[in-house]
Structures are given as structure tokens and as C-alpha cells.
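Blackboard transcription, Thursday session:
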Amino acid sequence: MPYEILTKETIVDYLKKTESMRKFFSSFDALDIEEVGDGNLNFVYKITNQKQPTETVVLKQAVPYLRCAGETWPLSKERMNFEIMALETHKELHPEGIPDIYHHDKEMSLVIMRNLNRHKILRGEMNQGKIFPQLADHISTFLARTIFRTSDWYLGSHDKKESVKQFINKELCELTENFIFTHPFYNASSNSYSPDLTPEDINYIHKDGRVRIAVAELRHRFKTGAECLVHGDLHTGSIMVNETDTYMIDPEFAFYGPAGFDPGLFIGNLLLAYVAHGYRQEELLKRDPLPYRTWILDTIVQTWEQFVTKFNALWEAHIIASQDPFWHYEGALADHEKLRQNTIDGIFRDAVGFAGCEMVRRTLGIAKVSDVKEIEDTEARAELERLSLQIGKELITDRQQIKSIQEVIDIATRVSPLTTTPVASVKCC
Amino acid sequence: MPYEILTKETIVDYLKKTESMRKFFSSFDALDIEEVGDGNLNFVYKITNQKQPTETVVLKQAVPYLRCAGETWPLSKERMNFEIMALETHKELHPEGIPDIYHHDKEMSLVIMRNLNRHKILRGEMNQGKIFPQLADHISTFLARTIFRTSDWYLGSHDKKESVKQFINKELCELTENFIFTHPFYNASSNSYSPDLTPEDINYIHKDGRVRIAVAELRHRFKTGAECLVHGDLHTGSIMVNETDTYMIDPEFAFYGPAGFDPGLFIGNLLLAYVAHGYRQEELLKRDPLPYRTWILDTIVQTWEQFVTKFNALWEAHIIASQDPFWHYEGALADHEKLRQNTIDGIFRDAVGFAGCEMVRRTLGIAKVSDVKEIEDTEARAELERLSLQIGKELITDRQQIKSIQEVIDIATRVSPLTTTPVASVKCC
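(Written on the board underneath:)
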């Protein structure tokens, strides 16, 4: 059907006209429809048959503007096509961590999928101090599979290039280019600064030419490094969890980009959570901060190290199975191991830089993280933001020198020691 | 009209049916039609009105197979679309160095363009020892303009991504991936070795794991570094010259790739010529080799240095004119200069590696260069090939350490001293 924006009132009619939904719902006369979108880009509804509560779905529809900015910021609703294509690709590569898709409609820019009603958004759960022991295992598997299996390291040249073409995602890439790599790094009108952040704090980022140069390089890498299909927005708000499962959702930013982008954003968000829990644990949750913050840092280390192990294993197995004559000689496997190490080193450098950009943009840019933003004590909040800026800046400017994930942890714990709520000493330039 | 392969017999009918050609030729009854293709990929005809010899064109038609390999090697004739699009883009950016296009026909996979009958292929001219004092100036201008103005450094994000999509050139990229970056580096059946090249000479490349690793990295860079529209095959056989002009032709390999690719291929071919003239000058042209070989090396240095100057100037002017707020603060221009330097260093490293790959693939791979291949003394030829392999290998494995174009020259003159016909001392691994 031609595009129209669905409302709570018109959704039932749409479902009735949709064959797969007629099979899914045993009746349509007692549907509970709740709008649950975070309000940034799309409308998201949870739809449940009150007579039969196991009959429940999520309907997500894109509207032709940036929802959080209003109708004056047009954004093509075709972005939903990228989400649908990415969900399908991810589902194939990592079935246990992607919700089932029941129906999609490109004209209507909508998708109907499993309601993960036994799962919650990771960011909210982490804000409550909950631990997910399998998080690193699940995320690293998702990263290794999706990065490796959509890349030139695995795919044939034609298939990979066709995929690059399909995933030319102009509009949402441009949002990232602006809101992660550009606006937060100068005094752009779209930025927002929390009340107790001082001009000196902001200048700590804005008046350091090394930051400007490094971010321009990272932005260029983002724009040109067509290595693999990246999720494009893999923060803790795009991940749904419970004790046993980890789901990746909302891949509308998916495009062919640098392999370090998804790990970088994920690590950046965990570091923001690490900083936030320097306050949250003692002040809000009334706990010793050590165990939870240690879990966060362990999760960062484990995610990266397990990603490396899994990515390596996939690639090595592929080289052996493919009998590629280029890698078929005495000593080839040892040489290939060096190539993998060099490649992983490059992914790591990118990831470190992207993590730093994420920390800065979530502090100075338009889109904050609730981890920090929710904190009502504005002085304490500004203090956490200072720490985020300090860690973020160091990751950005020193990414070429940082050689291991442990060094990233060392930076985080030097700036914000594990056991205390520290005071950042911010020095500009 | 539907696709058919034109022949000398059917060309006249085709021209008569083509409006622009009816205007171009005052009569069709005395056309001289000569097939002049190099035979690798396409059919190329020079068509001249014998009654009015200024009425002359070149017609180039793609056939649905790799011409040099025969009909058993299918190759989509749609490759001509990439040549047409690239010619149009290049013409807009560098009008003085691209032939006028009179007509193109995507269904017929053909283009009719100016017959550069006062110009000759640079490779043949250099084989004769001719000097083109403006070559470096012209090539560096072409490189700076086409690299800068098709890149993210200049274009808006949407325009650049649209261009990337248009130039997804699967088949011809795959040829490059195979014939430049893969087959020459192991004992592939498509390789061909000149008679006096010994197994030890070949193993000097094939049995060195450092080469294998570095070439895999360069291939990955070729496949993923979507920086700008590259010509894709800028060797001295794709350049037509006379005393005053330099034309770039045959851009059917055009795609979005790393900025270092075109400079690298060009420099690699000049280095092959430099090596060849260690023999050609004394033995074939009966001259002191010093002046000509010095001109070649000067041309390499000048091409790179002038490229850097021109690329820098275009980018700096653009940043100033665009008033990009990201680069609008006290000290911004000095910071941007550092960014440009870092960027150019990266382009240079890539270019050095690609130059090395070109030297090796033109020696061990299927497609030779006449500079060396024409030499009938097979022992002398093998000696030159050894020198090419030695220089090529050093550029490939040491590309990260080579910091300036002068160091490239130093490697070339160390391996093959300027004034003598030297003996290579090839050591494996």
C-alpha cells in the first residue's frame, strides 16, 4: 500500500490486511498498542493480543523526517530498507542474536518483528547495575561473524562489491558524519552542554588541534574504509538482553565501513558506563563501586580478546578450507597469521579512535547517554563528563600508540580510578 | 540499436545511422578504417575520410569477452559504461588532457571520440628514448584534480557516495585483483616467465613470505579504500603525448579506490622504463644512458612533488573557500596543513606499494611491458627483469619505511646505477 504514517488507530487495519499477521494473531479485537520508541528517528509500537498475550509483535515505522528534530529535518523513510536488509544479513550470520522478522513493507517503510518482551535494553539494565556474564561472549561472536563474513577477507570480490552497492546508506551515514565526527568537535549549534560543564572543559576538546586533526582522519576512515557491513550504531541502547540472550537491534545505520567501527562504538559506550558507575554505584545504588566497574572493564577486555580469537579462527579456517593457492605453500599458515595480526592491529587502532569519538560526542553532542544524563546532581554529572572527555580525547589522539586493550583499560583507570569517585584534572592542550 | 560486434564492413553503416557522425563526416564513401587496438580487451578503429583527412575519429567497442584470452573468457561488455562515465568525469575535471567524446552508445558498448592522430602512445615514444619535458607537470595536474575533486576531501557526502555506487566496477576490478595483486605472486598458470629468468629469480618473489603478506595488505587496500575515482590503469600505454599535450585514455578500469593507486601505477611504469633504458640506451639507441635515465628519474620526482603541491593547493583553497566551521578557528590552517601532510604520507605509502606490485606483475604476470619484452637478447632481458623484481620487491616490503620520493630513487639507482648496465645481485629472502 502507498506510504502513510500509521497511528495507534490505523495499525489494526494495517495488520488485518497483512497476511502473515492474520496468521499470527488469532483475533484483532483486543489488541493493546503501546508506542515505545526512544523518539530519535522512528515510531515503534508493541502490539499484544490481550486475549492471548503470547501473540505479541513489535512494529517499527520510519517517518520521512528526523523524529527528534521534527518535520523540519527531512530524512528519507527509505532508511528502513537498510534496516530490513541488515536485519536479514545479520539474522543469517548470527541467528541467535537477531529478532525474527515476521513482515516487512518497503513502501510503508515498516518492519514487524518479534517482540523481545523477555528482554530489556542493555543500557537501562546497566544503569541499574545489572551484570550480564555472557555479554562479551555474545557481542564478540556477533562482531566476528558479521565483520568477517561480509568482508573481502571472506566474500568473493563480486558479492562483496554488490553488497557495498546495496548498502550505500547516504542519509544515515551523513548523520554519523555530522553527529559523531564533526559537530561535537567544534562549537556547533546542534551541540548541547550540561549546565555545570565549564567553557574550559569544552575547550579541552575544541581548542586542541591534535583532536581536530585526528577526528578528521577518523572521519575519513569512516567515509572511505569499505571493509565490511557494520551495524553502524552498536551502542548499549541497540542491544537487548536477559540472563541468557543478547539481541542486536536497530541496524538502520548499516553500511560498508571500517571493521573497527562497531567494536569501537560498543567499547566507547562501555567506557561511558564505567565512568558513570564511578558515581552511580556509591551514590545511587549504595554499593561498593569495585565489583560492577570491574565487570565493565572485564567485559571490554573480554569482548575485544574474544573477538580477536573468533575473528582469527574464522579467517584461518576459511583460508584452510578455501585452498586459496596464494596461501598454499610451506610456511603459508605462519605468514597468514602475521597478516591477520597486522589486520587486527589496524582494526584495533580504528576501534580505539572511534571509541574516543563516541565518548566525546555523547558528552558534547546532541545525543547524550542516559548513563550520565540521568544523573540529577549537575555538578557530579559535569565531573563524569570531564572524565569521559579526558578518556575520549586520549583514545582519539593516541590511537596509533595504544597497542593493547589493556592499555585502554589503563587509561580509563588512570583517569577514573576503579574504587573511588575521582576528580578529573583537566588540562587544555 | 541492439548489441552487435562491429567489423570494418559494418562500421560505415553504423556511422551513417548516427546523427553526430552524419554531421561530422562530409561523406562516407571513402572512409579508411584501421584496427589499432592493442588486442587486450577491445576493438579500436581509426576511421578517416580519405577525401578530407581532418575528418577522423576513433571508435572503441567492447566485446563480451577478454579479447586477448578469447571468447572462453567472458567479460561483460557493460565495462564500456565505466569508460564512458570516467571519460566524462575526467573531461570535466581536466579538459585539456582528455579526448573529446563525439558519441557514445551504451547498448552497443562503444564510444566514438577524437582521433589523437598528432599524438602517440607514451610507452612507444619512451621506448624510442624521446623526452617529454612537460610530462610531470601534466600528469601531476591530472592526478591532483581527479583525485581531489572526486574524493570526500572535496565532494559532499551524498554526491561522493552516489559516485561510489555508479562506479562499482566488479569485473575490471577483479582483473586487477587477480593480475596485479594475486597471480604474479605465486606460481599461477596465467603467469609467463621470460626464457632466461631462473627458478631462483622467480622464487625471489614467490618464496618470500614478507612479499605475500605485504601484497595481501595492498590488495585489501585496493579493494576497500574507496577514496576517489581512480583511472585504474594509468600506465604509460594509457597516455598519449606529443610535444605539447598529454592525454589520458582508456579509463575502463575506473572505480573508487585508494588515492595512491594511479600515482603508484604511473611511477611503477616509469621505474620499469628506467630499468629498461639501462640496456636500451647503450645497446639499442647507442647513447650514453645518463641523460635519458636521469630524465626518467626526474620525471618521477617531479610528478610526485608537483602532485603534492597541486593537491595541497586545491585542498587548502577549498577549505578556505568553503568556510567549513570545523576548520574555522585560530590556528586552523596550520592544523589543516598537518592533516594534509598526514594524508599525503598515507597516499605516498600506498603509491610506493602499488608501484612495486606493478613492477613485479609486469615481469612475472601475464601482461608484460614492451619496454622490456621487446628486447630480443633474452639474457639481457632476464637481467632487466631481475632488476625490476628487486626494486619492486623492496617497494612492496618497505613501503611503510620509505619516507620520500628521493628514497624511491635511491633504491632504483642502488639496484640499477644510472650510468652503467649493472648486474643485479638477487638474493632470495
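Lecturer's comment: The beta strands of chain A are 31-35, 42-49, 56-62, 101-105, 110-114, 120-121, 228-230, 239-241, 246-248, 255-257.
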